[in-house]
UniProtKB/TrEMBL annotation:
Pfam family, one: QueG_DUF1730
Primary localisation category: cytoplasm
Protein name: Epoxyqueuosine reductase
The protein's annotated pathway: tRNA modification; tRNA-queuosine biosynthesis
Family per similarity comment: Belongs to the QueG family.
Keyword field: 4Fe-4S, Cobalamin, Cobalt, Cytoplasm, Iron, Iron-sulfur, Metal-binding, Oxidoreductase, Queuosine biosynthesis, tRNA processing
Subunit structure: Monomer.
GO biological process, one term: tRNA queuosine(34) biosynthetic process
PROSITE patterns xref list: 4FE4S_FER_1, 4FE4S_FER_2
Cofactor: [4Fe-4S] cluster; cob(II)alamin
Length: 356
């Protein structure tokens, strides 16, 4: 290690990362004291909701050298995921009979892809300098990936709390390589949100409670993906036809006019999920759900919560005979969670249809 020249190794790492398909690579220092204070406040306000794993590791999330002893610098990488072949987002959102799935989940699960590419990057570094200490992360451990990416110059934290880049917007995944290499960090990205607040106004549930502050308990991504139990009744009408995640804050962001479609075939749309109907997806039994979501991030919520989410969306859709029949077919489902949301949806249509 003493013979390594960090000044020549760093540009090589950045180049190797781009050759492996990352759109941008940068080096971050490990001083996250500013972000540690923000994390602690967020946890103290219980804005993480039922995501107990956010607090489980304490402040180790903001202390890379405690999470991985010996860490001196972090290689941060960014990969675009917006599928070029997907139906227009607003078109799907405007059709209450169709299901909206967050763009990141339309194709293959990104965890394995990014982890594999980062491992290849680590292997290439080792081929060049010999064995070194490292650990690969892709949203898989207590890591403050967005602040690290900001410190690596990959973008700034927007008012919606997503990472933003002035040249490519925000439709990208992040991954990290914690290393014991003494690499110089890149210049921290600066904020370019200015006076814009479109993301705050566009959030269907008001989850962006202040600029740069998100209450996960109100976020549709949390409600449809992370929440284990019942979706609060007061929020159900606000979900519209969003059955897995939400992209509204990104959809309205002016910087995303510069976003580029992904070049990764694995992120292409699978199973027509960019324009499938709610009734069609609600008809999947568990075996079909597991088959259709093989290799997809959607599988992690399981069939029960899949039906829960779609039942809410069907309650928000127009009460056509097809919609009513689909809901009635699940009214005696073995899951109390599914039955509760189906009952709510049918009651919504009973109230709506009472005026006819």
């Amino acid at each position: 290690m003493s013979a390594i020249d960090p000044a020549t190794l760093k540009p090589a790492i950045l180049q190797w990362g781009r050759e492996l398909g990352f759109q941008a690579v940068g080096i971050a220092h490990i001083d996250l004291r500013e972000d540690e204070a923000a994390l602690q406040r967020w946890l103290d306000l219980y804005r993480h909701g039922d995501m107990e794993w956010m607090a489980r590791h304490g402040l180790k999330r903001a202390r890379p050298a405690e999470l991985v002893p010996g860490t001196m610098s972090v290689v941060c990488a960014r990969m675009d995921y917006l599928p070029a072949d997907a139906a227009p987002m607003q078109e799907t959102l405007d059709d209450p009979q169709r299901a909206y799935v967050s763009r990141y989940a339309l194709g293959r699960d990104y965890h394995k892809l990014l982890r594999g590419r980062l491992q290849k990057l680590a292997d290439r570094i080792a081929d060049h300098i010999g064995p070194f200490g490292y650990r690969v992360f892709t949203d898989s451990a207590p890591v403050l990936e967005k602040p690290l990416a900001r410190n690596a110059g990959l973008g700034w934290l927007g008012k919606h709390t997503n990472l933003l880049d002035s040249k490519t917007g925000s439709w990208f995944f992040l991954g990290e390589l914690y290393t014991d290499l003494p690499l110089a960090s890149d210049e921290r990205a600066t904020d370019h949100c200015g006076t814009c607040s479109r993301c705050i106004g566009a959030c269907p549930t008001g989850a962006i409670v202040a600029p740069y502050e998100l209450d996960a308990r109100l976020c549709i991504s949390y409600l449809t993906i992370e929440l284990q139990g019942a979706i609060p009744e007061s929020l159900r009408p606000l979900l519209g036809n969003r059955i897995y995640g939400c992209d509204d804050c990104q959809l309205v962001c002016p910087w995303n006019k510069f976003a580029q479609p992904t070049r990764e075939a694995d992120f292409a749309v699978r199973n027509g999920l960019d324009q499938a109907t709610l009734v069609e997806l609600f008809a999947w039994d568990e075996a079909e759900f597991l088959r259709r979501t093989e290799g997809s991030p959607i599988r992690r919520i399981g069939h029960e919560r899949w039906l829960r989410n779609i039942a809410v969306a069907l309650g928000n859709a127009k009460g056509t005979p097809e919609v009513i029949a689909a809901l009635q077919a699940r009214s005696t489902h073995p899951s109390a969670l599914v039955r509760e949301h189906v009952t709510w949806a049918l009651a919504r249509h009973a109230v709506t249809n009472a005026g006819y």
